[in-house]
Amino acid sequence: MTDELELLRDWDADAAPLTDPARAEARHRLLNTIARAQRHSDAVIGRRRALRLATAAVVAVAVTGTAVLITEGGADGGDRSDRVSGTATPRMSNVSAVTVLNGAAARTGRHERPVAPRDDQYIYSKRIIKETERGTGAVKTYEDVNWDSVDGSKRSLTMELGRVIWEKPMKKGEGVWPPRKWSELKRLPTDPEKLIPVITDIGSSSRSTSDFTAQDWFDAYFMLGELLKWPVLPQGLRPAAYKALALVPGVEAVPGVKDSAGRTGVGISCPESPFGKGKYLIFDPGSYEFLGFRDERTSASGDKTYIQLSHVVEWAIVDRLKERP
Q1: Residues 325, 322: Cα–Cα separation, whole Å
Q2: Tens of pLDDT, residues 228-264
Q3: I want to staple 233 with a disulfide (CB 3.0 to 4.6 A). Which of 19, 29, 228, 237 is the partner?
Q4: Phi, psi of 163, deg, nearest 5
Q5: Where are the strands (E) in the chain, listed by range?
Q6: Stretch 36-49: mean pLDDT, rounded?
Q7: How far apart are CA 21 and CA 44, in angstroms?
């Protein structure tokens, strides 16, 4: 069970158990807050800091049984003229998303290498983000470098669109998704049909996906996408996440989506999801190699929309902050 979801189970041993509606509202509050932080990543509060605040808000929901949902409208789609650059939403095709995702799972399973970082180490990663303002076409490229404490007990150095952010050690009751602690990640199932209920259900992992509502599947799509953004996962977990995405109803393949390196691939999206508009995982159409992400965000003022293309160019496990491989 993930750090933030554990909070809802353990927040107060003497309190009455959460009702199903309260549990659902808490989960959706968390996910909507994360989505809002993603889209407004130029705001004062960084995305992952907002995620910590969202976790605290979920605990408040557990106590009060009430929640205020935060919703954000998606950006308007562009025309086909900017399809190749990735700044428009391409048309759908008959390409099978299931084939692409299962192919990516098989490829990853063949090439992944087992790793086991210590709690006192850091995950170093460098991500290239190419951001295009939809209105003007202006392009900026960022090189974000991160050093994340493996267990959250030390401060981390992260970057968001070129801004340096020093994150304090996590306090008791704080958590992030995906879990930073390696032991938490290793608890996540590598069976895709078991992985989905565990990451989407607060307080219980016993439900079957056959009982899922549309909202449950939307949550699964969002949580799996966030998991796949983490540069280092225990062996078998990344292939399981790809296979789990293939189980999400409505997931579709979109041809002609370019990544931040200019490579043309197949985008995988969930257009019906409130968290999925304009968001793609991009794969090579032949080898199913994962190429990167396409996201959309809106400025804090709400008057500008940006298309973000990103990919991780390198990662490593290091012993010290600012140490590079």
Answers
A1: 10
A2: 999 999 999 999 999 999 999 999 999 999 888 888 9
A3: 237
A4: -85, 130
A5: 122-133, 139-149, 156-160, 163-167, 252-258, 264-269, 280-283, 290-298, 305-318
A6: 41
A7: 32
pLDDT score recorded for residue 225? 92
Phi and psi at residue 234, in whole multiples of 5°? Answer: -60, 155
- Edge-to-edge strands of the sheet including 305-318? 163-167, 156-160, 139-149, 122-133, 305-318, 290-298, 280-283, 264-269, 252-258
The domain ranges of the chain are 97-318
Give pLDDT, residue 272. 84
Question: What does DSSP assign to residue 283?
Answer: E
Q: Write down the pLDDT at residue 31.
A: 54
Query: Residues 6 or more apart from 134 whose CB is under 8 A from it?
Result: 75, 78, 87, 304, 305, 306, 307
Q: How far is CA 187 from CA 9, 130, 179, 231, 237, in A?
A: 17, 34, 10, 17, 10
Asked if 87 and 36 count as a contact pair (C-beta separation under 8 A), the reply is no
Name the β-bridge partners of 95: none
**Token couple for 159:** 């970057």
Question: Looking at the predicted structure, is the pLDDT value of residue 170 above 50?
Answer: yes
Three-state secondary structure call for residue 21: helix
Please state the rounded mean pLDDT for residues 115-120: 91
Look at residues 290, 229, 302 and name the one whose alpha carbon lies nearest to residue 51: 229
Q: How many CB atoms lie within 10 A of CB 4?
A: 25
- Three-state SS for 257? strand
